[in-house]
Amino acid sequence: MTISLHSYLGLSAILFAIGVAGVLTRRNVIVVFMCIELMLNSVNLTLIAYSAFLGEITGQVLVFFVMAVAAAEAAVGLAIVIALFRNRQTVNIDEINILKW
Amino acid sequence: MAYQLVGYAVFLPLAGFLFNGLLGRALKSEKLVGWIGSATVGAGFVIACMIFFQMLGSPPGERSHIVAVFPWITAGSLSVGFSYQVDQLSVLMMLIVTGVGFLIHVYSIGYMHGDRGFWRFFTYMNLFIFAMLNLVMADNFLLLFLGWEGVGLCSYLLIGFWYEKKFEKGTTADAAKKAFIVNRVGDFGFLIGMFLIFETFGSLSFQSVFAQASMLPTGSSVIFWVTLALFFGATGKSAQIPLFVWLPDAMAGPTPVSALIHAATMVTAGVYMVARCSILFVLAPATMEIVAIVGAVTALFAASIGLVQNDIKKVLAYSTISQLGYMFLGLGVGAFAAGVFHVLTHAFFKALLFLASGAVIHALHEEQDIRKMGGLREHLPVTYRTFLIGAIAIAGIPPLAGFFSKDEILWRAFSSGHWALWLVGFAGAGLTAFYMFRLVSLTFDGERRWRADAHPHEASATMTVPLIILAMLSVIGGFVGIPASLGGGNSIEHWLEPVFERANDKLTLLPHSVEPAEYILMGLSVAIALGGIMLARSWYLRRKEIPERIEAQKPAWYMVLLNKYYVDEIYDAAIVTPTIKGSEVLLWKIIDVRVIDWLVNAVAKALAAVSRAARLVQTGVAQNYVFVFLLGVVAVLGWLIAK
Amino acid sequence: MSVEATLFFVVGAFAIALAVLMVVQRNPVMSAIYLIGNFFCLALLYLSLRAQLLAVLQIVVYTGAIMVLVVFVIMLLNLGDEKRLTEQLDTKKIVGLVLVFGFLLEVLFIVGGSETEPMHAALHPDAATIGTVESMGTALFGKFLLPFELTSLLLLAAIVGAVVLAKRRVNTEP
User: Fold this and answer.
1) Are the beta carbons of C106 and B631 separated by less than 8 Å?
2) ipTM, interface predicted TM-score of the complex
3) What's the CATH fold of domain A5-92?
């Protein structure tokens, strides 16, 4: 069978779903963070697939920016985790509920 | 064309109100405040004269014009503006209001001299003139009502002018409140009448309403209720039974106020209004009967109370109520022009009497009890002579003004078949003469009963000149209405004929021929007046033991009259106290506290409860939020797929 | 099947497998390793789509920088293993997994159910030229100059933020 756009989209959807499952299930903050990265990457795959099949550069430029933003987000997010760990001595997501009512 | 100036005439007093109101306190000169206040009214009088003369020069059919100054409300089918109907009736009222008003303003410059609130007095007086002119000149019910309410407000402000002064059982502020509230009850009737008029005729403008009304048959029930409601309003404003109780208390205000508002102008507003709506009343004969009966009974009732009162102003107050009764009697029997004629003459002599009494009160340093007066004849010559002229006029002695107007009313009552009402009015005339000359005798004649250290002297020119002018008017004022039977042309009736044309068409009037009965009645009126005068002079000058014995023995009839038939006490027990108690117990404690407050608190509590439940959603755990998010996404996608 | 197709399926299967392993693995360091593997597979997929620059950037930025940072933090915090998944299941998690499955089905339905239009059947002829450094550069410094500059600001903000947030509290009052 030919590899069409839909194949890539389907693959991307599966990876995204795995990422969401991970976010919902895991209790370690950093692992949750990695699952989020997985979701971002699946979206990247979608964008590049569209770019390649439609002949537009826009998709790839967008992926470029997504990567930049993901890097920034990683830096800041991990800094927050470190600060949180210093205060609470835990990275268990269930116990980080400061914004509770 | 002089007619166009009517807007200035009405709004100049408003300008005076603003000027004196804003700057009066700062201006230290009484002269400036007083003369500006008087000048605005005087200018109005000049304009009224100009319009009057222009009217005289035009043919009778073309004397009525509408002058629109500016639009006011336009909403749906209701369109009323500040527009004035300048016709014979309104010009006559305008002349009275501005003419007598001007004289009283000038008088007040002298009377209120030295008062701390001098500027406030003239401010309120000018506002009053503004409102009154709107009332009498309006060409639609709503503007009339604006003036109606406005004069009520000014009456309140001016009655309570010396707001800390003690008056009977309370302060003058209580008297002012009473006046305002009783008026309000009447105004409610007026409002109902206005609503019904708008409902029935679809308009509030006189021209439209009266034109439509003249097409209606006599005796329709809607018109009956309209006129009854309007008349109820008139009983409030013009102090007839059952809403007269505020007028005697209104004597708490300064004497010029009593003269202007409670004698010459505001109280005649009810008479004017009924006269203006003559066509409506004519279409409801039942209401006319009620008007006539109420008028006649009030005339006799009030006169009887005036017989025994000991405060000079109270006597004059009851006299006013009584004379207003005569005016309504005239209106009720279909003699609209006669009723308005009596308004004119009454304005002259009643204002004169009040102003003269003010001079007496001033001279004796605020003494108002006639038992403490007497022998003032030599000390206050001008005041005495003018007061005397006023008394003769009101008693109905020809050829002074009161005779012609009162007699016309009595004759019309008799000749239209209302013999019983004629008799009541006739008796009232006798009582009127009696109590007026009791007043004259006790105040000016006999020995002096006043304090030794009071040195009464004649007032200043600003006070005496208006007295003299009003006295002259009381003498010659009646000549505009000399009936045909005495060889006159009854000019005032002819002057007002076009205004009452529609009404007169509907009435089955007796022919205007001169009958011998008229002379007989005339003679009887003069006779009873003279009788009253002579009896009063006899009792209070020569045989003083008779009234003294009555006062000492206090027979039942005397006590009833002295206590004004206990009407105030009855009203208090039957209406006022239950209302206050009911409001306290029911409206305040139950409805306000338990129902409304509870409701408001319940809303707050419910809100708190809901938020207490709703905040549990915020768990603070991010995963939960993702979960909910996912839930939403799945739902939306599912819905999109299903479409 | 063509070489391309074979390559796609093999690499795709690897990517999925590594992703699943990452999610179920209890040791955080191992999860990170698996994710790195996943990123490598994705880079290969990017290459099959002729996106040369992005494939390399994926490896350099994502695996080389971001994942290194993540591993570094894991080791800094000295985290232990998590409990077994089966020990920590509760209603919410089960419902969540069901929802995820449903979500996946929905998306696959949408994707698979639509018609394959001609342009989606094969790679665009220009695909190869698009993915080069040259064309990306031209686009970034031409049409997308403003977002490019703004991204640099964003990175500046991130740097400052990370430094401030992670700083050890200095106990002197200002």
Assistant:
1) no
2) 0.89
3) Helix Hairpins (1.10.287)
